[in-house]
């Protein structure tokens, strides 16, 4: 059985002071916008970003611009847990990238998100009930797992299981398995296998298992 951490900040080492400590993340109150975000998410796969050449630089670990990259499903956690975590990390002096899920388009990770993934030191995927329903979240977790595996120990992943069981993420239950299967028509079986492998690897890491009370 995997050991899970009690939620705390001891694992996050204090970041070095850097110039321009203001957030370069894109934040959005998103009140009343989740339904529109879901519509765009389902329609966006008809368009693709031109990211030729960017993937070749995906695993360059020569420098970092962010201490922490938060990967999360806005529908589940943006206006509660993730927002609180982001603020706490910022107050502690960490330079954090908080992706705006609502602005994503295309089938490939590109632009600012790709740069942030490649140039982050710590990845915190916040696995929640609808995480696997988002192809973007699945692409992020696959990319951050690969970045970490090729970093020679310079990067690490600290998963949070927010109101889900680690076994859900390990695909031992139907929750994530069913959600991922719905992406096969658009992305094909090979891409699904890549996402599934990344989820299982990350879910085996020590992390925080959080359950909401009430």
Index terms:
39% helix; 214 residues; 6 strands; Rossmann fold; six-stranded parallel β-sheet; 7 helices; alpha/beta
Give an account of the 3D structure.
The chain is α/β, with parallel strands linked by helices. It has a domain at 62-210: Toll/interleukin-1 receptor homology (TIR) domain (Rossmann fold, 3-Layer(aba) Sandwich), CATH 3.40.50.10140. It is 39% helix and 12% strand. Strands 1, 2, 3, 4, 5 and 6 form a 6-stranded parallel beta sheet that branches. The radius of gyration is 16 Å and the shape is globular.
Q: What spatial form do the alpha-carbon principal axes imply?
A: globular
Cα(first) to Cα(last) distance is 26 Å
Order of helices and strands: HEHEHEHEEHHHE
Mean pLDDT across all amino acids: 77
Number of helices: 7
> Which residue ranges are poorly predicted, with pLDDT under 50 across at least 5 consecutive positions?
1-8, 17-61
Structural class: alpha/beta
How many E strands? 6
**If you consult CATH, what is the topology of the domain at 62-210?**
Rossmann fold
Residue share in β-strands: 5-15%
Return the CATH class of the domain at 62-210.
Answer: Alpha Beta
Q: What is the CA-based Rg, rounded?
A: 16 Å
Helical percentage: 25-40%
- Oligomeric description of these chains: single chain
């Amino acid at each position: 059985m995997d050991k899970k951490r009690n939620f705390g900040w001891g694992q996050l080492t204090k970041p070095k002071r850097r110039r321009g400590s203001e957030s370069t993340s894109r934040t959005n109150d998103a009140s009343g916008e989740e339904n529109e975000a879901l519509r765009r998410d389902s329609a966006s796969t008809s368009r693709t970003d031109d990211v030729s050449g960017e993937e070749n630089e995906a695993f360059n670990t020569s420098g970092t611009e962010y201490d922490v990259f938060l990967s999360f499903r806005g529908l589940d956690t943006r206006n509660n847990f993730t927002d609180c975590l982001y603020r706490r990390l910022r107050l502690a002096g960490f330079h954090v990238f908080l992706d705006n899920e609502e602005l994503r388009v295309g089938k490939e990770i590109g632009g600012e998100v790709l740069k942030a993934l490649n140039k982050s030191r710590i990845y915190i995927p916040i696995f929640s009930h609808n995480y696997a329903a988002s192809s973007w979240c699945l692409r992020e977790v696959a990319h951050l797992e690969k970045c970490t595996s090729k970093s020679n120990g310079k990067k690490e992943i600290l998963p949070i299981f927010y109101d889900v069981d680690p076994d859900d993420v390990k695909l031992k239950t139907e929750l994530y398995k069913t959600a991922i299967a719905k992406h096969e028509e658009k992305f094909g079986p090979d891409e699904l296998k890549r996402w599934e492998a990344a989820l299982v690897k990350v879910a085996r890491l020590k992390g925080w298992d959080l359950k909401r009370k009430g």
